[in-house]
Amino acid sequence: MYNYTLTTDFDRKNLIQKALDNISHAYAPYSHFHVSAAVLMSDGKVYTGVNVENASYPAGICAERNAIFHAIAQDKAAKLVAVAIVGGADGKIQDYCAPCGVCRQVMREFGNPQEITVIMAKSTTDYQEMTLGELLPMSFGPEFLT
Ligand code: THU
Questions:
Q1: Considering the domain boundaries, does residue 7 fall inside one?
Q2: Which of 40, 58, 60, 115 has the most CB within a 10 Å radius?
Q3: Full domain range(s) for residue 38
Q4: What integer pLDDT is reported at residue 13 of this predicted model?
């Protein structure tokens, strides 16, 4: 049940495509920087999220956290396997969009950092992939508090 891993190229393309499909849903009237994320969980399910900004700026949320919280709200026992991220000014994707530090920390909560794959994509065929451990070395996580 909870043993789905990111194995095939199909998984990667599928995850990136889901993020691409949703970028028009980003609500970013202040920064105009649109971000969309799709997360693959260990039960094989995929959840999406976009950034949602707010007139009171700090109340907004990033796409990655929106997707992860959506996933955990459905099943808190599932682990995070992979995250695909796309983003760009006015929704035009010109660069690889790296996750912010807060989102990296939230990812850290829901899986082994060496096993979580972060895919920063321009398209389904042009992407960079790193582990969360590489993006957030020597991190603090839930096992410190048990
Ligand atoms: N943003 C994300 O949604 N994810 C990231 O990884 C980087 C930043 C959002 C937050 C804000 O709505 C906008 O991009 C500009 O910072």
A1: no
A2: 40
A3: 12-145
A4: 96
Q: Determine which residue's CA is closest to atom 2 belonging to ligand 1.
A: 62
Q: Is 63 left (phi over 0), alpha (psi -120 to 50) or beta?
A: alpha
64 in ligand 1 pocket by Cβ < 6 Å? yes
* Domain tally, the chain: 1
Contact 53, 30 (CB under 8 A): yes
User: Against a cut of 0.90, is the pTM above it?
Assistant: yes
Residue 113 contacts residue 73 (beta carbons within 8 Å): no
- Residues in the chain predicted with pLDDT less than 50, given as ranges, are none
d(C-alpha 48, C-alpha 36), whole Å: 7
Q: What pLDDT, on the 0 to 100 scale, is given for residue 16?
A: 98
In a 3-state reduction of DSSP, which class is residue 104?
helix
Q: 24 alpha carbon to ligand 1 midpoint, in Å?
A: 14
Q: With beta carbons less than 8 A apart as the criterion, state whether 12 and 40 touch.
A: no
Could you say which DSSP state residue 23 is in? G
CATH for 141: 3.40.140.10
Per-residue tokens: 130: 């790193």
Do the domain assignments include residue 3?
no
Whether residue 95 is contained in a domain is answered as yes
